[in-house]
Each structure stands twice: as structure tokens, then as C-alpha cells.
Design brief:
mainly alpha; 30 residues; globular
């Protein structure tokens, strides 16, 4: 999933690189 939720911010993008599924499930940074 290359598309990250805009609301998540760059942090989610970095996390997405490591755990895309985790980032998608969490969405915006908690």
C-alpha cells in the first residue's frame, strides 16, 4: 500500500516503509 492517509503525516509514511499494514490499520499517528 503505497498510498498513506494524508492525515497520518510523514511519520506514518516512515512507519509504512517498515510496517505498511500496521500504518494502514493505525491510520493517523496515535
Amino acid at each position: 500500500n503505497a498510498v498513506i492517509d494524508p492525515n497520518a503525516g510523514s511519520e506514518s509514511g516512515n512507519i509504512g516503509s517498515l510496517n505498511p499494514t500496521s500504518a494502514v490499520r493505525k491510520g493517523p499517528k496515535t
